[in-house]
Design goal:
alpha/beta; five-stranded mixed β-sheet; 10 strands; globular
Length: about 280
């Protein structure tokens, strides 16, 4: 049996396939980002899921695609953890970008992730090529959930947020400085915490020019740093994976017209496309 995991920083989707490609289990855990979570926390998250615990000895292959798995040390740490739990399985760990690629294309394209974090690659039809290594939410992650969360918090405290929107913001979130600093500097997953504020942009009933400008700036920064850096940018379709991309579709379309870019598929989650990829390529 093959266990596929697609992990962001916020949550991880797991799907178990039998030898014929039928889905026999779906479950979800918290995200398993090995770049920000300690080993004990990663183990606890997996072990606490009873569905996974029940199949520890039954799975023969575990393929995990994860945020924070783009550099060797955290990737190998997570691989060792999975091998210790799924003792009879061959384990592979790859960065989440590859799940994004497999879910949307088999032909040359640029594939982007806009979720809790952000990144992109050029896929030549066989291999993915990253223009730059991802350095995470503190330095990079333009247009990601944590990028917008930081901007909302800054604007609120610098009093740059329109007053009516600020009133709604403080009613929806705990904006105590102590609470915010505790989550950012003391608790695990500060990037996911920041990203939790981004939902405010898409769920506030009365949309405002403030939100439009916030999203437009983020998308523009992403295009400049993560798309136009590829020489193939105007020659191939550009696909997006992730909730932020899904809910920002109109602004992405508008921004692409300004840059003469070809928009491909926008998927909120890659898992269904990933399942089809395994059925066609891994289970023949």
């Amino acid at each position: 049996m093959i266990l596929i995991a697609d992990s962001g920083s916020t949550k991880c989707d797991w799907v178990l396939l039998d030898s014929s490609g039928e889905v026999i289990l779906r479950t979800t855990t918290l995200g398993l980002n090995p770049a920000v979570l300690p080993t004990e926390e990663l183990i606890s998250i997996i072990k606490s899921n009873s569905d996974l615990a029940a199949i520890f000895d039954k799975v023969t292959l575990v393929d995990l695609y994860g945020a924070g798995c783009g550099t060797e040390t955290p990737k190998q740490n997570l691989k060792k953890i999975l091998e210790s739990l799924f003792k009879n399985a061959l384990v592979t760990v790859q960065e989440d970008m590859m799940a994004a690629v497999y879910s949307v294309t088999t032909t040359p394209s640029i594939v982007c992730i806009l979720g809790t974090g952000s990144n992109s690659c050029y896929f030549d039809g066989e291999n993915a090529h990253l223009a730059t290594e991802s350095l995470g939410y503190i330095i990079m992650d333009e247009a990601a959930g944590n990028f917008y969360g930081k901007q909302l918090i800054r604007d609120y405290f610098y009093k740059k947020m329109p007053s009516e929107i600020a009133t709604q913001f403080e009613a929806q979130f705990n904006v105590s400085p102590d609470e915010i600093k505790m989550n950012l500097y003391k608790k695990p997953n500060p990037n996911a915490y920041l990203a939790s504020f981004a939902k405010f942009i898409f769920t506030t009933p009365d949309q405002d020019a403030y939100f439009y400008n916030l999203l437009s700036v983020g998308v523009s920064k992403f295009i400049q740093n993560h798309i136009l850096c590829y020489e193939q940018a105007t020659e191939v379709p550009i696909h997006f994976i992730g909730s932020i991309a899904y809910f920002s579709e109109d602004i992405i379309k508008e921004s692409f017209k300004n840059h003469n870019l070809q928009l491909g598929t926008i998927l909120q989650k890659p898992m269904e496309g990933l399942i089809e990829y395994y059925r066609k390529n891994k289970l023949k």
